[in-house]
Amino acid sequence: MTYPPAEPPTEGTLDPDDWAGLRAQGHRMLDDMFDYLATLRERPVWQPAPAELRAAFRAPLPRAPSSLEAAHNRFMREILPYAVGNAHPGFMGWVHGGGTAVGMLAETLAAGLNANLGGRNQVPVEVERQITRWMRELFGFPDAASGLFVTGTSMANLIGVLVARAAALGRPVRRAGVAAEPTRLTAYTSACAHTCVAQAMDISGLGSDALRLIPVDDDFRMDVDALRAAIAADRRAGLRPFLIAGTAGTVDVGAVDPLDTLADIAADEGLWFHVDGAFGALAMLSPELAPLLAGIERADSIAFDFHKWGQVPYDAGFILVRDGETHRAAFDASAAYLSRETRGMAADSPWPCDYGPDLSRGFRALKTWFTLTVYGADRLGAAIARTCAIARHLARRVQAEPALELLAPVALNIVCFRYRGTGDAAADDRLNAAILLAVQESGLAAPSSTRVRGSLAIRAAIVNHRTAPVDVDRLCDAVLRTGAALAATAALEPHPIP
Ligand SMILES: *Cc1c(COP(=O)(O)O)cnc(C)c1O
């Protein structure tokens, strides 16, 4: 085979005339990000952006070009300092992963390759299949299990619901729609489940009213007797139960539903058993934590994120389905331009696009493959276990401080606590909401809030591998200091509670 000589014309293309100049600028950009990651502790976790700075992002569409250097300088000055800060070790708000330099580099390679992972005969698709194989191994799923990268667990839960719907109603539902069904399908999840489970019921046409929110026990785990009773009541009412969605790591307190019992009930009742393991599922990487998830290996589908505890840069959600054929039957389609061959570029079917709604798809698998390959499962598991140890350290400190109160047991990596006020519920909520905002604005630490049995809680979710005991101590000190100062100012302004 002969190829044309390498003197490519760049006239009219978007490639540079001066690759050497681009190379030097590219190295400066990479160096700036290494510096950012290496010196995170010297920065505030988060800071509000000045209004003038935001205003500059309302400029009209640029018609003329400008230099890469100028755009990069703006990024460094006006974008990087004003992100939410989840790479920072002091970030404990919400369940966000910290990312890694390895993931960043892999993402750069993926962008350079610009592979479209919808399908076709290419090794990038094989890399995604490799991740599926590894996840089968991790979760004890059979060889027939399928997997797919998606944006996040919100989308993975939606796919789980859609596969469960197709499993219950068969292929015809894809044409006739649920409106043609004489009997309404009902699903079951805990009152502490993520709201995206209800949203998945809504989007799938089943309706969020058909999702029963089962009460939880003292440890915030789904009450299995209440679950059995709800299923029986719906059957008596002529409805058709089809799905139990358990949670491995609830978003507010980190509770794990009794997955093994949920699997028993699903088997007895003939229901699909889905697990929302958004962050918690990857506890399977830690031999110390994996037993807490006993029963997850019996799920029909598991939704989780590599971008949370897995530390892969955003976004990298994943759905694993025990029966790959049922999964494919919920999404596959035929279109002439997607026809399959046994040779050439249209070979190697089935393709990722047969397992979900996306046709064009990025190479999320690459940054995940690099992360798992470079760090290894054991080291990632140890980093996950360490976040739980740090959460226990924070919980012990909270319990040792008379001014603080622990609001929920610490099952994994989330600590919900509050500053003890006067005992007046509304005033104490206002006090803790004010403490939360002051601590966030201090840039010292970034906790978030939730409600635990009606009370506003300061919530520290330790997800970032960079977070150390010193960071949770700093949070604790800041809450104590701010709480004492605010409690002393008698007239606390009523604050909107987040
Ligand atoms: C974060 C989270 C979700 C949503 O996942 P995304 O990746 O943000 O879409 C769902 N469920 C739980 C338990 C979560 O923690």
Automatic annotation (TrEMBL):
Keyword terms: Decarboxylase, Lyase, Pyridoxal phosphate
State the superkingdom. Answer: Bacteria
* Needed cofactors: pyridoxal 5'-phosphate
Family matches, as Pfam families: Pyridoxal_deC
What PROSITE patterns does the annotation carry?
DDC_GAD_HDC_YDC (PS00392)
- Family, per the entry? Belongs to the group II decarboxylase family.
What's this protein's name?
Answer: Cytochrome D ubiquinol oxidase subunit I
What organism does the record attribute this protein to?
Bordetella bronchialis
